[in-house]
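Note on ligand handling. Small-molecule inputs were canonicalized before submission; formal charges were left as drawn, and no protonation-state enumeration was performed. Where a ligand contained multiple stereocentres, the stereochemistry in the source SMILES was retained. For flavin mononucleotide, this procedure yielded the string shown in the input block below.
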Amino acid sequence: MILKLIEAARWAPSAKNGQQWRFTVLTGNSKKALLDEFRGALEKLSEKIGRKEMGSALPSCSIMEKAAVLIVVWNAGTFGWITEEHSVAAAVEHLLLKAHDLGLGGLWIGDVWYTPEVFSEYLKKDWKLFGALSIGWPDEGPDPRPRKSVDEIVEFLR
Ligand SMILES: Cc1cc2nc3c(=O)[nH]c(=O)nc-3n(C[C@H](O)[C@H](O)[C@H](O)COP(=O)(O)O)c2cc1C
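Structure output:
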């Protein structure tokens, strides 16, 4: 199942066909060990900056702990182009659309950026951290989140 997600991701478009996306898939004990580190670092940060400044970081960590699979996403691009980031984002969206297609639940987690060093150091990667994805079987079917109307987001110039 996870390989189907990665297969979908690798067909994303990328700037100059750089394909700089990289994925670390964690389950079981390896997921728990990493998230124990993450939670510990978040608690420490919370003591330093105050709970109010922590936004959704701790709830996001709980979601990551609950979901069966954690995919840490990296940008191995070497040029430092903004388009390298865009390319990895395209791969992530391919992956999430495939997860939806397979009946899986997927959540893009940007809150890893509260303590990015935890992921880079624990997983010993020199690649740039991009984000993380929590993947699992959904146990709820929430209503769609609100969206801006088409009129609010597009202009047509003639
Ligand atoms: C770049 C990015 C970062 C996100 N980070 C988080 C996160 O850290 N925690 C979380 O619960 N959701 C996160 N999300 C999910 C958004 O909150 C969600 O996509 C948005 O509220 C719209 O809801 P929907 O995708 O269910 O329609 C993130 C989404 C994106 C695109």
